[in-house]
Specification:
The chain is an alpha/beta fold. It folds into two domains: about 5-115 and about 305-330, Quinone Oxidoreductase, Chain A, domain 1 (Alpha-Beta Complex); about 130-280, 3-Layer(aba) Sandwich (Rossmann fold), CATH 3.40.50.720. It is built from nine helices and 15 strands. It has helices at about 50-55, 120-145, 160-170, 180-190, 205-210, 225-235, 265, 285-295, 315-320, and strands at about 5-10, 25-30, 40-45, 70-80, 90-100, 100-105, 110, 150-155, 175-180, 195-200, 215-220, 235-245, 270-275, 305-310, 330. Strands 3, 4, 5, 6, 7, 14 and 15 form a seven-stranded mixed beta sheet that branches. It has a six-stranded parallel beta sheet with strand order 10-9-8-11-12-13, sandwiched between helices. Helix 7 links the parallel strand 12 and strand 13. Helix 2 crosses helix 3. The two termini are about 15 Å apart. The structure holds NADP nicotinamide-adenine-dinucleotide phosphate (NAP). NADP nicotinamide-adenine-dinucleotide phosphate binds near residues 49, 50 and 248.
């Protein structure tokens, strides 16, 4: 068993993009466990677009990560030693913890993860921790699509977006996905998206007008900026706009412009609602059961983009903002338990 642990610390607030000074990796001796504590060997860590938001000086939806703190992230791992009677060596635990290879917890941040039959640990963690519940809540509870509705999804080839389009299809909707580049647009077609728009190579508004001449009922927004404006331009009367994320603005160092088509909130009588998945934690068992069922039945396709090594976490995180990730981005910190 290791006598030391590596942790990423928040070292310097980024002015724009995350750089090599933003987070630093340090190795420290592991202190002895106290009564009630257990030691976790981390296996996978989720990288999420909101990680950059936690490092900002914005007024955000939860406590930010403060300078000098360990970087926060969703982690799954295996208990390797325990002084807590509720947790035993070999238990799988998951929760919102830190970017570390070994973690000491007492059940406050990490709780037992029941195994899900038929799903690998990587699939269960990658899809059921953040991306799946976010797609399900945002689409079904906020977007409230009806069969036959046209649902437009931005960052559609990403972790959340790849699932939103498929859940919309399961509910009888027509789906249009926006993504950057031919490879991702090809992947969207494989997922069953009815139509795709390559925002890097096509005029998005023109394409959307051609693909949805009667307009869009539900816009599931992950991007913001010009992509959001394009969506707002083609909404149908009484359409619903789900603001899940605004990733194109997370690295901004000053105020961001727009949206310029905000007038369509009136012209098209739109409902716009944002949400944060952490507000729905009490309903996770229900969402995870639903999503795991679709995964086991082969109704939800997905791809995981797994980067090896805790030391590569920062370079991996940058992929989310450059579009370099192909599917749910996560870091493999250690081997899966046998
Ligand atoms: N509200 C919530 O509770 C909640 C929970 C989870 C995630 N989210 C949000 O959901 C969104 C997707 O997150 P994710 O973790 O699933 O990441 P992801 O979609 O797997 O990866 C991010 C993708 O965003 C696209 N992108 C990045 N910068 C862009 C830009 N400037 N313009 C256009 N597209 C850009 C890239 O795809 P392309 O290659 O196609 O450009 C990139 O691959 C984020 O906005 C995130 O904040 C919200």
């Amino acid at each position: 068993m290791s006598s030391s642990a590596r942790h990423w610390y928040f070292n310097q607030r980024p002015a724009g993009d995350i750089d090599d000074q933003t987070l630093v990796l340090r190795e420290e001796p592991l202190p002895p466990l106290k009564d009630g504590e257990f030691l976790v060997r981390a296996v996978y860590m989720s990288l999420d677009a909101t990680n950059r938001v936690w490092l900002s000086d914005w007024d955000i939806y939860m406590e930010p990560v403060h300078l000098g703190d360990r970087m926060r992230g969703f982690v799954v791992g295996e208990v390797v030693k325990s002084l807590n009677s509720n947790y035993a060596a070999g238990d799988l635990v998951a929760g919102l913890s830190s970017w570390s290879d070994y973690i000491i917890d007492n059940g406050a941040a990490m709780q037992k993860l029941p195994p899900i039959p038929g799903l690998s640990l990587a699939d269960a963690f990658g899809i059921l921790t953040v991306a799946g519940p976010t797609a399900l809540v945002g689409l079904m509870e906020i977007g409230k699509p009806k069969p036959g509705d046209t649902v437009l999804v931005t960052a559609a080839a990403g972790a959340v977006g790849m699932l939103v389009g498929q859940i919309a299809k399961i509910h009888g909707c027509r789906t249009i996905g926006i993504a950057g580049g031919a490879e991702k647009c090809g992947w969207l077609r494989e997922l069953g998206y009815d139509a795709v728009v390559d925002y890097k190579n096509e005029n998005v508004v023109e394409r959307l007008r051609a693909l949805a001449p009667d307009g869009v009922d539900v816009l599931f927004e992950n991007v913001g900026g010009e992509v959001l404006d394009a969506g707002l331009t083609v909404m149908k009367d009484f359409g619903r706009v789900v603001i899940c994320g605004l990733i194109s603005t997370y690295n901004a160092s000053g105020p961001v412009p727009g949206p310029y088509m905000f007038r369509n909130v009136i012209m098209r009588r739109l409902t716009i609602q944002g949400f944060v998945i952490l507000d729905y934690l009490d309903r996770y068992p229900e969402y995870q059961m639903q999503l795991a069922g679709w995964m086991q039945q082969g109704k939800l396709k997905y791809r995981l983009h797994v980067v090896d090594g805790l030391e590569n976490a920062v370079d991996a995180l940058k992929l989310l903002y450059s579009g370099g990730n192909q599917g749910k981005l996560m870091v493999r910190i250690g081997d899966e338990p046998r």
